[in-house]
Amino acid sequence: MPTPANIAALDGLHTFPRLLLHHARTRPNAPAMREKNLGIWQTWTWSDVAERVRALACGLSELGFKRGDNLAIIGDNRPHMYMMMAAAQCLGGVPLPLYQDAVANEMLFVLQDASIRFAVVEDQEQVDKMLEVMADLPSLQHVIYDDPRGMRHYNQSFLHDIHELMEMGRIHDRNHPDFLNAEIEQGHFDDVSVMLYTSGTTGKPKGVCQTHAAFIAAARGGIEVDKMVADGDILSYLPMAWVGDHLFSYAQAMVAGFTINCPESGETVMTDLREIGPTYYFAPPRVFESLLTSVMIRMEDAGKLKQKMFHYFMAVADRCGADILDGKMVSTADRLLYGLGNLLVYGPLRNVLGLSRVRVAYTAGAAIGPELFKFYRSIGINLKQFYGQTETCAYVCLQPDGAIKFDSVGQPAPGVEIKIADNGEVLVKGPMLLKAYYKRPDATAESINADGYFLTGDAGFLDEDGHLKIIDRAKDVGKLANGAMYAPNFIENKLKFFQYVKEAVCFGANRDMVCAFVNIDIGAVGNWAERRGIAYSGYTDLAGKTEVGELIQQCVEEINAGLAGDSMMADSQIHRFLILHKELDPDDDELTRTRKVRRNFVSDKYKVLIDALYDGKQTQFIETEVKFEDGRRGKVSADLLIRDCKTFPIARKAA
């Protein structure tokens, strides 16, 4: 694995603009990007992309963009958004993608912190957000938009159509033909190539400055392990502000040369996924949970014969499917049964999910339950976990073929060193580490120790085979009142394996028992209720139904039965729970934009419910303020029923 010190020797391809020009020169007609627009897939070759990036970069320069400037990028995954990243890098600038579903005031801190002068946005909605906060952004000088729909009557001089910018850039390029090549030549592997802000679960987001060398090293490591090739396809649909998308849809695509495919909209992702049939797929656990939920809903609506066949062959897959995928020894009878199941169940299921061509699928961003992980591998999808943070280019551990463990995140990736601190915290070192936190030398110094290891904040351990097992966030791991270990995320992931549970939050640190909040999945539970003739008017009404409470209680008690046999976590059986009257939502600050629970915020906001769980109450009234997408505020109230769960005797190991 190359290090930042020697990466410059690798054919001179040590910055992303150089990689782009390399592909345009060596394989100009190969597809680089696709976008579905009005139901039709449009393709840009590598030469097309290089020409547009050149025009965009020269156009930015004409507007006054210069080396060291930060460029805000706000919108869904669109070819022009990715091209603008490369254009900024050509000029020695730094692209800074933001979460497109954030409201204007949420974006304000990042825009101010990064002293944004230039922003490129997708459409009228994002332009309106910029106009809303313009008074608080004296540094913002130019806003470039991609989609002109609805923009006819916007006549502010600082607004620019991206196509007009390209034409301006082409004129600039004709007048100064050597300008951009000279700018690209100045680019250095240790220059900051992108700035990605952390999700801010515990405080204000921090800008993570990553270099060309760091992301190229991470991209090459993943390509090496999973043998990615240029003729592959990936569906690029996750937020561009998330480090996972930047690694897979930008860095690895630039290095390997495979095609990124942008869906028409968030609502058409599943349809577009099936049309493209990607060879390489990435999704956080919540997406795989949602896919499994949709499968289970469909099966519940199927006829008795189909249901019986599905469950029979899924039992076969559970028994031997993952071993067959890993090339392990399996009996001839099981291989024959699995082959029949592949014809009748697994193959059609992979096709419905849009994953029939997938060579490798990855999940990360949060821990995935072993049961969910095993399900996908058992039906022949080469799903792997990887592990990393924004500060490590999402690159710390990978799972090579044939070395998969359901309860681990893999082995150290090429070039990465892992060490476990005395307090159990995972420490990592390698070429993928951040250069610095933007304007935060104090935070940078605190995050990397004297030996050059980054402090991940996760608690874990290395097993006898060198696989890393993550327990939980180090700050969340605690002890129950009896001294037993308590890791809330471990329990929550087990709950979320059930299709009826969308989100869960556990409590128990320094207490005598574990209690939980549950968010139901309205799609799965609604389908379940309708088939039983249970009428409901919405989420709050459905969540309060006695029958739904009994359904979730069965799930909780099944988890408890499993925990009883786990020597480390047996004391963490859930004693009491309630179903929340509303879904936890990023707009209400209960989740981050990457859908991680803000535990401290949730604990403070719902303190009255936590107290009721531990005070032995059977019901608790609550009224909660909520924000709507259009900015209005309202209130949701309900009397929540608290349920006591059956717990099981703990199977202690003999001394």
Shape: globular
| Number of DSSP-assigned strands | 28
Number of domains: 3
**Would you identify the regions where 5 or more consecutive residues have pLDDT less than 50?**
1-9
Q: How are strands sequenced across the largest beta sheet?
A: 4-3-5-6-7
Tally of helical segments: 21
CATH topology of the largest domain: Rossmann fold
- How does the helix and strand content classify structurally? alpha/beta
CATH superfamily of the largest domain: ANL, N-terminal domain
Helix content: 25-40%
Q: Per DSSP, what share of the residues sits in E-state strands of 2 or more residues?
A: 15-25%
Largest sheet: 5 strands, parallel
Q: What is the CA–CA distance across the termini?
A: 45 Å
Report Rg: 25 Å
Given this structure, which CATH class of the largest domain is correct?
Alpha Beta
Mean pLDDT: 91
The CATH architecture of the largest domain is 3-Layer(aba) Sandwich
Give a short synopsis of this structure.
The chain is an alpha/beta fold and 655 residues long.
